[in-house]
Amino acid sequence: MTTALVAHAAALDAEAPLAHVRQRFLLPAGIVYLDGNSLGPLPAAVPSALHDLVHRQWGTDLIRSWNSNGWWEAPTRIGDRVGRLIGAAPGQTVAGDSTSVQLYNALSAAAALRPDRPYLVTDPGDFPTDRYLTDAVATQLGLEARRVSPADLEDFLEKEGDRVAVVCHSPVDYRTGELHHMAAPTRAAHEAGALVLWDLCHAAGAMPIQLDALEADFAVGCGYKFLSGGPGAPAFLYAARRHHADWRPPVTGWNGHADPFGLHDTYEPAPGIGKARIGTPPILSLLALEAALTVFDDVDMAQVRAKSLSLTGFFLDCAAQLLDGLGFEPVTPAVPERRGSQVSLRHAHAYGLARALESRGVIGDMRAPDLLRFGVNALYTSHAEILSAVTCLREISTTGAYDPTAVAAGAVT
Ligand SMILES: Cc1ncc(COP(=O)(O)O)c(C=O)c1O
Predict the structure, then answer these.
(1) Looking at the structure, do residues 162 and 185 belong to the same domain, yes or no?
(2) Quick check: 175 and 125 in contact, CB under 8 A?
(3) Which end of the chain is more exposed for a tag (fewer CB within 10 A), N or C?
């Protein structure tokens, strides 16, 4: 059975696109890295870019670099680069801060564009920060946070849509890897007069996203997962151009002022996306992200999606053949159109298994209480690696070479 899978993996790798892009990453030998949906690996262009930034730009050019090395424009320049991956025409995306801060900014400002509507809607299964911030913004603005799952959203909008100010959802479920539709809910929300804010943390860089064509209102996402911008990389915020005249981000830092160096007494927002800037941009991490984004040069996102689906589909096939009867339950949809770029398996001993895999050089992760997550990135993951990860999981399970009593404590990678 495994011999056939080995041959199948080799055939799939031989015909898969993007094989040459793997060399744009510095992947450690002997590691199967399936956690790029949490922290992308190091792109080869980053160390030299950071060396130049630290030694020449900061070390020698000093403060002149704000002008001479393009530091001042970095948030919008790099925002536009991310924009190319999410279907946003230039001038609508800014890079900086964390996703949580960008969510707060976008949610508060979007809600203010729909006064007299009492509901902010989020998904009960969304990442905690989305739920916490929806609750917090609702409290601050005297609104009500409503939790509505993607499956129930269109029904909810039909019944109560005229009370909804903003819908904040993610296209990919961070635990199960399920991919939700974006077009139909965006349309339904607009028909009800509501605005839509997409959290693209698990989608940006992993699949084609067309924010402009969707007529999305706002979007946020992080730089450290599929964009491989490094630990704590700056996030991004997209605001559709049609909202630029009226939109007022609530965090009115001096960088977002129309005339920041005028040092005025009162705040006057910059025109366009510039008003989404807050404070002095984190140049070290912004320029690391900028260098990281070169891995996408000449990359066709349709090919990224096709290869990602081949990888996750092959993972599910391997799991069906090699893990049957060992206590694993795949929770990622088998239907390709409903899969993001990860596979999740439920198992009662997920934590112990994840640690045992890691000690054998297979790095995935788990989410409490019982989900093993394996992220694939079409830019560097191979079908052979998928097979070796599932084979390793089978060996650990059948030999009992893991601690079934291990439980996650503290930070879980
Ligand atoms: C879907 C989603 N939204 C938001 C966040 C939080 O991002 P940040 O830590 O940049 O605030 C995460 C982090 O993993 C996430 O997965």
Answers:
(1) yes
(2) yes
(3) N
For residue 259, indicate whether it is catalytic: no
Catalytically annotated residue among 127, 238, 296, 380: 127
Residue found under tokens 């730089």? 223
pLDDT in tens, the chain (413 residues): 589 999 999 999 999 999 999 999 999 999 999 999 999 999 999 999 999 999 999 999 999 999 999 999 999 999 999 999 999 999 999 999 999 999 999 999 999 999 999 999 999 999 999 999 999 999 999 999 999 999 999 999 999 999 999 999 999 999 999 999 999 999 999 999 999 999 999 999 999 999 999 999 999 999 999 999 999 999 999 999 999 999 999 999 999 999 999 999 999 999 999 999 999 999 999 999 999 999 999 999 999 999 999 999 999 999 999 999 999 999 999 999 999 999 999 999 999 999 999 999 999 999 999 999 999 999 999 999 999 999 999 999 999 999 999 887 655 44
Residue 2 Cα to ligand 1 midpoint, Å, equals 37
DSSP secondary structure string for all residues of 262-291? G--SS--BPSGGGGG--SS--HHHHHHHHH
Strand partners, 329: 346
Annotated binding site for pyridoxal 5'-phosphate: 99-100, 127-130, 199, 202, 224, 254, 280
Residues 290 and 303 in one domain: no
Domain boundary among 265, 296, 327: 296
Q: CA dist 367 to 132, 189, 410, Å? A: 18, 31, 12
Beta carbons of 171 and 179 less than 8 angstroms apart: yes
Residues 351 and 276 in one domain: no
Reference 366, options 393, 381, 341, 345; nearest CA is 345
Domain count, the chain: 2
Domain closes at, from 272, 296, 320: 296
Same domain, 241 and 329: no
Q: Is 127 assigned a catalytic role?
A: yes
Domain shared by 262 and 309, yes or no: no
- Ligand 1 pocket (Cβ < 6 Å) reads 98-100, 127, 129-130, 170, 174, 199, 201-202, 222, 235
Pocket test for ligand 1, best of 127, 179, 413 (most atoms within 8 A of CB): 127
Domain span at residue 113 reads 48-296
Whether 277 and 363 map to the same domain: the answer is: no
CATH of the domain at 239: 3.40.640.10
